[in-house]
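Structure, all two chains, one model.
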Amino acid sequence: EAQVTQNPRYLITVTGKKLTVTCSQNMNHEYMSWYRQDPGLGLRQIYYSMNVEVTDKGDVPEGYKVSRKEKRNFPLILESPSPNQTSLYFCASRPAGTPLNNEQFFGPGTRLTVL
Amino acid sequence: DQQVKQNSPSLSVQEGRISILNCDYTNSMFDYFLWYKKYPAEGPTFLISISSIKDKNEDGRFTVFLNKSAKHLSLHIVPSQPGDSAVYFCAASPTSGTYKYIFGTGTRLKVLA
């Protein structure tokens, strides 16, 4: 089954404790992206990757890191999480090309709480 | 600065009637516009898209209209069904960065049986 998987689905942590949220897709997609969803703010793009070893900042990259060493994986790293990073996170992937004819598939989400 | 705005946080419609969800944008450099649907505890799913060179795109019960001069797009669902109850996000992608997506804040649609 074609899918985007994220782990963990739920995480409660404390301020300053480094964490990684993993994302994997089995559709051989070139493009992958991370978003956060917050009440009243919708979805905001954190980072995206056009292919292996090629990443770029979205609208809200502060406090996050990413890496794309393999095509299928795109982990999101929070080196020193803070309470304002409490959010619902989504990973997504799609084939290369324009957004018009290349559907973006989303993972099920990771709910992160930073105390 | 919110470049993509959905000014109605919620909308209720009777089953069988038309649902109209609206979206406004400020950046004239957006080339692609998309609508996503999101159910609770799931990721968003793609619904329909339109290019800036078109003013209408239709897919079954879903039609997206684009008014470039007004920087406005709308999603029409006809007829509305209870299963359409979800949060709908519009999104835009610019010419200069087709891997960038700017999303609106979402509209919660409730279709009443």
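Chain B has a mean pLDDT of 94.
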